[in-house]
Amino acid sequence: MICVGLPNTPAQVPAANLIFHGRSLAGSLIGGIAETQEMLDYCAEKNITADVELIDIKDVNKAFERMEKSDVKYRFVIDLATLK
After folding, report:
1. What's the start-to-end Cα distance of the chain, in Å?
2. What whole-number distance in Å separates Cα of residue 52 and Cα of residue 75?
3. d(CA 81, CA 56)
4. 78 pLDDT exceeds 90?
5. 82 and 58 in contact (C-beta within 8 Å)?
6. What percent of the chain has pLDDT over 90?
7. CA distances for 6 relative to 1, 10, 53, angstroms
8. Average pLDDT of 26-53?
9. Where are the chain's structural domains?
10. What is the tens place of the pLDDT at every residue in 7-36?
C-alpha cells in the first residue's frame, strides 16, 4: 500500500499482515510520474478499474450541487465529447 498525502486519521496497520504476507507500506506527499505509472501498470495487470459517473458538461452544476449534498457514490467524469 502506498499512502499518497496525509489521511485524516492515523493508519493502524497490523504488523503481522506485513511480515507474514510479504506486504509493504510506503508513503509520499505526492505521487510522482514513476509511481503513478507503476500504479497504472499494476491496475491494468490486475484488471482494477474505477467506478465513475459520466456526466455531460451541461450537467456540471447539478453534479456540483450533488457533491455539496453528499449525494455522490462515484467520481464524476465529464464526457469530453459534450464540450462542443
Report:
1. 40
2. 5
3. 8
4. yes
5. yes
6. 57
7. 14, 9, 26
8. 89
9. 2-46, 52-83
10. 888 888 889 988 999 998 888 877 788 888
